[in-house]
Amino acid sequence: AQSVTQLDSQVPVFEEAPVELRCNYSSSVSVYLFWYVQYPNQGLQLLLKYLSGSTLVKGINGFEAEFNKSQTSFHLRKPSVHISDTAEYFCAVSDRGSSYKLIFGSGTRLLVRP
Amino acid sequence: SAVISQKPSRDICQRGTSLTIQCQVDSQVTMMFWYRQQPGQSLTLIATANQGSEATYESGFVIDKFPISRPNLTFSTLTVSNMSPEDSSIYLCSVRTTTNEKLFFGSGTQLSVL
Fold it and tell me: What fold, for B4-113?
């Protein structure tokens, strides 16, 4: 069965610094990959997704992620973070055969400090 | 896109009672799901709510504990029955629209069981 690992439970970073949030998944079969963000007291919002094609995916709010099949990773990056990026970030994966069923990682809390 | 209204947003309940959570979507959607997010853990799929028929439950979840209804294409309820403190979680409604792979999430119901 699929599993998703987000090794960092919390990532503190100063404003305008770059950040990378790590995500690894367990299976090498064809998958769809997603990053969701959850701002305080709000629902989950899709940041970006990889379905096929280019391995570098650009999302909203200046975030991007790169699909690396050999390393089964889908790390999220932003070159310069803002205070408003403080939130919980979830990586998720689904097998292409059941694209609606998402397996989520445990989440990484990004804490941006001034 | 889809706008999801989930009620209640939070509740504190006594052990042994039941709580019904409602999920209303502003447009017809193909699939509706219920997820659970336990404290400090990732989201776990409870079940797929099927219109007009019994929900499809994931391993570890049963209908007697989490009865689900979906009378039409825009509305679903999840009941958490005979609650215990272990049921304290955030419960999220999620929908998939007809047009893309994206899942939309409600803002969640934070349940605390005393």
Answer: Immunoglobulin-like (2.60.40)
